[in-house]
UniProtKB/TrEMBL annotation:
<keyword id="KW-0560">Oxidoreductase</keyword>
<feature type="domain" description="Thioredoxin">
    <location>
        <begin position="51"/>
        <end position="238"/>
    </location>
</feature>
<protein>
    <submittedName>
        <fullName>Protein-disulfide isomerase</fullName>
    </submittedName>
</protein>
<feature type="region of interest" description="Disordered">
    <location>
        <begin position="31"/>
        <end position="71"/>
    </location>
</feature>
<dbReference type="InterPro" id="IPR012336">
    <property type="entry name" value="Thioredoxin-like_fold"/>
</dbReference>
<comment type="similarity">
    <text>Belongs to the thioredoxin family. DsbA subfamily.</text>
</comment>
<dbReference type="InterPro" id="IPR013766">
    <property type="entry name" value="Thioredoxin_domain"/>
</dbReference>
<dbReference type="InterPro" id="IPR036249">
    <property type="entry name" value="Thioredoxin-like_sf"/>
</dbReference>
<keyword id="KW-0732">Signal</keyword>
<dbReference type="GO" id="GO:0016853">
    <property type="term" value="F:isomerase activity"/>
</dbReference>
<keyword id="KW-0676">Redox-active center</keyword>
<dbReference type="Pfam" id="PF13462">
    <property type="entry name" value="Thioredoxin_4"/>
</dbReference>
<keyword id="KW-1015">Disulfide bond</keyword>
<keyword id="KW-0413">Isomerase</keyword>
Length: 247
């Protein structure tokens, strides 16, 4: 990689126990946190040296790399995978989606370096769960990322009552979905089960708020500055290249 930076610190915005849970993660020990902590607190991690997570590290096992996954962006064999635990009511998720994600797509997804895999983590309540099901219904028609962009373009206030079926149907129509199929897929057991599986996975590794990202095993929590993501992605790409060369 040629865009190496020398920032000595990668700041992490952490929610409650998330810093401890994600850095000292053990699958199966996490759980939900009813306090719904603020995603704006900050902590710092001073070791930013490139590392390749061991194959038996639970965080390294998170990428699914499923061909044709409509809720993923980028090459299935990209050297860096960013698993993104997010939800559609979270204002910090919206900030990331509007300000940072397009930059990462342009810089790293398009050149084959990065793959982004979405995970539903609808922890803010029923409207979050309803929106997550709508996202999966959009994915069933191959339009998840169009739905994602439309939902974050003009977010209602969390739990304001705005995200109802009429609101979601309007977005579905706006992005060219078959609304009848959209409604059917929202109500399907498959969508419910897939959403619940994502949510459980996040809880098991200690996620308590959104957005939460795992980049080749490295947690980055919160809507961090774009430069933070660039640094972690480039370090991960360098480490992956070194690991490949050493084999």
């Amino acid at each position: 990689m040629t865009r190496k930076r020398t920032s000595p610190v990668v700041p992490l915005a952490v929610a409650g126990i998330a810093a401890v849970a994600l850095v000292g993660v053990l699958v199966g020990t996490g759980g939900s946190d009813d306090s719904q902590p603020d995603a704006g607190a900050r902590a710092e991690v001073t070791d930013t040296s490139p590392q390749v997570a061991p194959d038996d590290d639970p965080l390294a096992q998170l990428p699914r790399r499923e061909k044709g996954d409509p809720m993923a962006l980028g090459d299935v064999d990209a050297p860096v995978v960013m698993v993104s635990y997010s939800e559609f009511q979270c204002p910090f998720c919206g900030k990331f989606a509007r300000d940072t994600e397009p930059e990462l797509v342009e810089q790293y997804v398009e050149d084959g370096t990065l793959r982004i895999e979405w995970r539903d983590f609808p922890y803010l309540g029923q409207e979050s769960a309803t929106a997550a099901l709508a996202g999966r219904a959009a994915a069933a028609q191959g339009r998840f990322w169009e739905f994602h962009d439309a939902m974050y373009a003009d977010q209602p206030s969390p739990n304001s009552g705005a995200i109802d079926q009429e609101y979601l149907d309007a977005i579905a129509e706006e992005i060219g979905l078959d609304v009848a199929d959209f409604r059917r897929d929202m109500a399907s057991p498959q969508a419910q089960q897939a959403m619940a599986a994502d949510f459980t996975e996040g809880q098991q590794i200690g996620v308590t708020g959104t957005p939460a990202f795992i980049i080749n095993g490295q947690p980055v929590i919160g809507a961090q500055p774009t430069a933070t993501f660039e640094q972690v992605i480039e370090d991960a790409a360098d480490a992956a290249a070194d690991d490949t060369a050493s084999r």
